[in-house]
Amino acid sequence: MAQIKQIFDQNFLEYASYVIKDRAIPDIQDGLKPVQRRILYTLYRMDDGTTHKVAAVVGQTMFLHPHGDASIYEALVNLANKDLFIEKQGNFGNIFTGDSAAAARYIECALLPFAKEILFHPETMQFVPSYDGKFQEPVVLPVKIPLALILGAEGIAVGMSTRILPHNFVEVVDAVRKALRGEAFALYPDFPTGGLVDVSDYKDGLGKVVSRAKLDVVDNKRIVVRELAFGTTCESLISSIEDATRKGKLKVGAINDYTAGEVEIEIELPRGVHAQDVIPALYAFTKCEVAHHVHCLLIVDRKPKVMAISEVIHYHAKHLQELLKRELLVEQSALLAKIHARTLERIFIEEKVYQGLEHLKSAKAIDEHIRSALQPFAGVEFHDPLTDEDIERLLKLPIRRISLFDIDKNKKELAQMQKRLKEISKALGDLVSYALLYLDNLLVAESARFARKSEITDIDRVDYRQAALRNLKLRYDEKEGYLGTEITTGELIGECSEYDRVFYVGGDTIYRVIEMPKKLFIGKKALYVALFEKKILSEAIFNIVYKHKESGYPYLKRFKLNQWMLGKNYGPLLPSQGQLMHFFIGEYWQMIPTYKESNLLKEEEIFSTEQYLIKSSSTQGVRLKAKAIAKIKLKEKKI
Description:
Elements: H1 2-24, H2 34-46, E1 52-53, H3 54-61, H4 69-80, E2 86-89, E3 108-111, H5 113-119, E4 127-129, E5 136-138, H6 147-151, E6 153-156, E7 161-164, H7 169-181, E8 196-198, E9 208-212, E10 214-218, E11 222-227, H8 234-246, E12 254-257, E13 265-268, H9 275-285, E14 289-293, E15 297-300, E16 303-306, H10 309-350, H11 363-374, H12 388-395, H13 399-403, H14 407-429, H15 431-446, E17 455-456, H16 464-467, E18 472-477, E19 482-484, E20 491-496, E21 501-505, E22 511-515, E23 520-521, E24 528-531, H17 534-539, E25 542-548, E26 554-559, E27 578-585, E28 589-595, E29 607-608, E30 622-623, E31 629-636
Parallel strand pairs: 8-17
Antiparallel strand pairs: 1-3, 2-3, 4-5, 6-7, 8-9, 9-14, 10-11, 11-13, 12-13, 15-16, 18-19, 18-20, 19-23, 21-22, 21-24, 25-26, 25-27, 26-30, 28-29, 28-31
């Protein structure tokens, strides 16, 4: 049994680790999930200047991705609809209407030149074997911008999840620029569907935002939705409005969807209903307003880590410098090798080292001849050691190349390469300035494509209880003991909505606060029933007049209610030895008792409630008179 448990634990840990690191959570370095990375790398390998059938791209990606074509196709369509890296041809669906893309065999795609510039640099990429060991795939792509923030991400792993909202490309790049310069910055989400967004509780990517559709009021009788809240479509929004209408939460006459290239949903209002009455309900009960909680979880050094948005930006400010440094070193090494080869080639031709080689009988003699001829130039014309590869390359020079060799052209090319080497050396000495220059050029080339779509504003949240239609009638039937909105007999307590709550004190003096009931038995002859209003209830003064069961003495209990939880019983308010005489609310009342042994000639005795202290609901009350009473009459005082 212990062995089975050990095997299960080990397998579960391996599975959980795989799902977290290699499937659901993006890596901070390139901001991509594995399926996205494999799709982009496949498009890069297939790139030939033309578009390719999505079905072909999916098929090629399956050599690297072990989870089937459906997941690849869906991920490719979603990635293409970000309008960032992939050129689309055909029907890729509509993010506004929610329409799905055409089948993979009908649509085509290709990488944009921008993607090849931002995402790939084969000389610096690290590769590992694919899942079956037959192919090579990149560990991460050398992405030079915080792609996780630009694309956004959602993923559910084992015991954890990530929710990163999309941000504006220009604003993200500008934030990296400010981080490189050591300046403060603030970064907020930008949604492809536009709309309004309240970022007051964003908390640097660790809080939440509220997204609203943009509504346009026409003639106070029509409301037109021009932009959608993030995470919704025209279909889901219309469905939510219809559902709220059926439930009586708002009144709508008709809904017309004219959405094509831009969102246009017309909401017609019935007679007697105006836009200012409906808009709060649209925000409260439909998907015109959506709250998004954020959880920025990324893979950092092969481990999941929750990060603030500013941390991601600062990480990429350093990561960009590292990527650019690698590229510069690769270019520097290639230039030095090229200069070395061109210099040897020039000496080999100018000094006619090739002459006399035809008389030599062996490869060793040829090698010694070339080395001997080039030796005087070592350390002067070239500095790297002469290798066997260098000699082999010189021997392969064709006669035509030798006879047409242009000395001046060779010198110009060498001068250009030397100039570039100096530029690389300068850039390596000041990587921050070089990174800033790179980002500046990037913004100049691409900023026109990425205008902000969502408008940042302060949103006053609508209380759905206040926005709800008060079209229900709450009644209490004292004879039958039922309370609710579906009762047609008894006393009308008030007009209400389904979100209101009810406060009542039963005949047993136990009190409760409950949700609005349709039909609930609370007992006959309840002492008090009212719609619950917290402020009014907390300020109300309750009074109970009772007599002691044994002595018959009258008592007054005055109190305020300062605690209640929904659905919980409190009380009883009447002491165990008390016999209830009166239950009433108010500050100023007169109590006129009639005693069992009454002197008819004596004037009636009057007690005023304001003369007694207000205490908690658990007190016994104060005795009015040490004399048994037969009854007591109440009279409200006029102040």
